[in-house]
UniProtKB/TrEMBL annotation:
InterPro entries: VPEID-CTERM
UniProt cross-references to NCBIfam families, sorted A to Z: VPEID-CTERM (TIGR04161)
Residues passing through the membrane, by range: 36-56
Signal peptide residues on this chain, from the entry's feature table: 1-20
Species annotation: Aliishimia ponticola
Keywords: Membrane, Signal, Transmembrane, Transmembrane helix
Name this protein carries in UniProt: VPEID-CTERM sorting domain-containing protein
Length: 63
């Protein structure tokens, strides 16, 4: 039940923010964002997976 309330609250908050952005009278501006290559993305995912597996293994051994 707690997770449902948190998820609903996050959904409502994000919907309000997006509606406020649409309702603004200022013209839309674009922001340059860096591109990421497939190699960099794969390396980032591998790093996250390694940290998660390390934490899982430490928790498993502690139990």
């Amino acid at each position: 039940m707690k997770k449902l309330v948190i998820a609903t609250t996050a959904l409502i908050a994000s919907a309000q923010a997006s509606l406020a952005n649409i309702a603004s009278l200022a013209p839309p501006t674009s922001t340059a964002v860096p591109e990421i290559s497939a190699l960099e993305g794969t390396a980032a995912l591998a790093a996250v997976a390694a940290v998660v597996l390390l934490a899982w293994e430490r928790r498993r051994r502690a139990a």
